[in-house]
Known about the structure:
Elements: H1 18-38, H2 40-55, E1 60-64, H3 66-83, E2 90-94, H4 114-121, E3 129-133, H5 140-151, E4 155-160, H6 166-169, E5 173-176, H7 191-210, H8 227-241, H9 245-255, H10 258-269
Parallel strand pairs: 1-2, 1-3, 3-4, 4-5
Amino acid sequence: MQITEQPSLYDNLEKKSVREILEDINREDQKVALAVQKAIPQIEELVNQIVPRMKQGGRIFYMGAGTSGRLGVLDASEIPPTFGMPPSWIIGLIAGGDTALRNPVEGAEDDKNRGWEELTEHHINNKDTVIGIAASGTTPYVIGALQEARRHGILTGCITSNPDSPMAAEADVAIEMIVGPEYVTGSSRMKSGTGQKMILNMISTSVMIQLGRVKGNKMVNMQLTNHKLVERGTQMIMDELGLDHDHAQKLLLLHGSVKQAIDAYQHSQSY
C-alpha cells in the first residue's frame, strides 16, 4: 500500500477534544520539516540545473491536480510581486484549468495527454523545466506531461510523498518527501501539502536569489502594489543610501523598484 493511503496513526478522531485534535495535527506537522530536510540534496540538484537554463531564458512549469496543482499556481503567482519577474517565467498549470482552483473538475487529472497539450500551448522548449507535483506520484495528467517533456529533452523534476512512484520514474530529479500517513487517512492536503509548499518555496526562492533578484536579504525588485510595500521599499533605500524619507520615496516612485532607484542614484553620484 502507498504511504499516502496508509491508515492514520490516530483513530476515533470524532471523540477527541478540539485541543487533542490540534495537538495531534501539530505533532504530525513537526515531521514535515524533517522529511523535507532529507530531500535537500535532490532539491539542490534540481535548482542547480534550473538556474543556468533560466539564465538563457528558460522557464519553470509546475504541474499538478487538486491541492498539488493549487500550490504550484500559488507559488508561481507570488514570483512577480515578490521578485519583480514577469508572470511568464514561472507558470503553474492545474488539471482542469483555472476552474479547478476553486472547484473540483471531474476526471481532469486522469487525462494523460492534456498536460503535454497545455505545455505545447506555451511553446515549451529545451531551456524550460517541468516540475510535477503529486503526493501519490500516480496522477496521469502529470505523468503524461513529464514523459513527453523528457522525450523532448526538457529537464523534469517532481515532488511526491511516496517512494519509487510512477511519476518519479519519469523525472530527471525526483524529490521524495516521505511524511508518513496523514492525520485524516488519505488527506494529502495536510502534511503532504505543507511539505510541497515548503519545497516550492525553497526552489523558487533559491532560484530567484541565484538570478540576482535579492540584494543582501532584501526584495529589491518587488512590485510596489500597495502602501506597505512602498514604505518598505522607501526604508530599504534610506538604509542603503542614507537619504531622508521624502527623497528616498521620490526616487522609488520615479524608478519603480528599490534596485533601479539605488542603481540610478549611485550612477548619478559617480559623475
